[in-house]
Design brief:
The protein is an alpha/beta fold. The protein is built from 8 helices and 15 strands. It has 2 domains: 82 residues; 192 residues, 3-Layer(aba) Sandwich (Rossmann fold). The strands form 3 sheets. It has a 7-stranded antiparallel beta sheet with strand order 14-1-12-3-2-13-15. A 6-stranded mixed beta sheet has the order 6-5-4-7-9-11, with helices on both faces.
Length: 313
């Protein structure tokens, strides 16, 4: 074979090999997923053959699953709106929960801090350390009362979106952790758009929902504990409801400890798609028993959709 012919074959074959490699990468997807029981407790020790993946009516090949505690980043997002801060006891609980995250949350995580009411603010960016985050939390003050009313604007989902953008390029294990009452009456974006942004980048949302039975939301206030909790689960995250009138120390609160455990570690599930999806397509992950049936009282928390290759760029 002449050198000219060899060179010609190389020129022709190289783009085909690159295309095949890109196609293979687009079919191969690695998803962070947590598995919890009926009480939100993390389930450990699962093997690859215990995961089942369904996509467009067909079973997918689960190539592997590995339990990981990845180096990660967490944006702590604190609600400072009037509906949260009007009650001194509730406001102190918000700050206590935020401080607990710094002192007792996943120790390997790098932290940043953002706050929000009608607009959001990046108070402490990544790289400044936990002490800077702790000092910023200590300096948070409740907004002044306005004519003794609870009137005020809260843009929760706008703030979640802005907090997610603090990551820049996403990394495995990225988390937005919101401390809020879950109300929203001011966001310009929609919940659906925020969820798509998070899911495309495998950014999980966790929420501590501060609930005060004495507070009656103003007319037009959207959201609430169940709504924001459902949104968190759709990203592969989770939520806890914390009552204002409870006095138990946060470090010993089971619900908060469960959130920390789910943030810090997860199964990295490697699945093989039949082809690169043309648009966001629903993916369902379940855990099965020895008989191939869905394991009872078990939920797999993961992004609800898979996206076209490169959609997050």
């Amino acid at each position: 074979m002449t050198l000219l012919r060899i060179a010609w074959l190389f020129i022709v074959a190289t783009p085909l090999l690159m295309a095949a490699q890109e196609h293979s990468m687009c079919e191969d997807r690695k998803l962070p997923a947590n598995v919890v029981d009926a009480h939100g407790q993390q389930i450990l020790g699962l093997t690859t053959d215990q995961f089942r993946a369904e996509y467009q009516g067909q079973l997918l090949k689960v190539k592997s699953s590995k339990f990981e505690s990845a180096p990660q980043r967490i944006v702590l997002l604190v609600d400072t709106s009037r509906s949260v801060s009007f009650d001194p006891q509730q406001w102190e609980l918000v700050k206590t929960v935020a401080n607990d995250m710094v002192s007792a949350g996943p120790p390997q995580a790098e932290l940043a801090l953002a706050t929000f009411s009608s607009t959001s603010e990046a108070n402490v960016r990544f790289g400044l350390g936990r002490k800077a985050v702790q000092e910023a939390i200590r300096g948070l003050t409740a907004p002044p009362k306005i004519a003794n009313t609870l009137a005020g604007e809260t843009a929760l989902y706008d703030a979640i979106l802005q907090a997610a953008k603090m990551f820049g390029d996403s990394q495995l294990g990225d988390v937005v952790y919101a401390i809020t009452d879950g109300l929203d009456n001011e966001s310009k974006t929609t919940t659906g758009k925020v969820l798509l942004y998070l899911e495309q980048r495998n950014i999980r949302l966790f929420v501590s929902v501060i609930h005060n039975s004495r507070f009656i939301p103003m007319p037009g206030a959207g959201g609430g504990p169940q709504v924001v909790g459902k949104a968190a689960r759709e990203t592969g995250g989770y939520y806890a409801i914390l009552e204002t009138d409870k006095s138990a120390p946060l470090a010993s609160t089971t619900a908060v400890q469960q959130l920390y455990a789910l943030m810090a570690s997860f199964y990295l599930v490697d699945i093989e798609l039949p082809k690169d999806p043309d648009k966001p397509r629903e993916l369902k992950l379940t855990v099965i028993d020895a008989n191939g049936k869905k394991r009872k009282a078990t939920t797999v928390l993961h992004s609800q959709n898979v996206f076209p290759c490169g959609a997050a760029k």
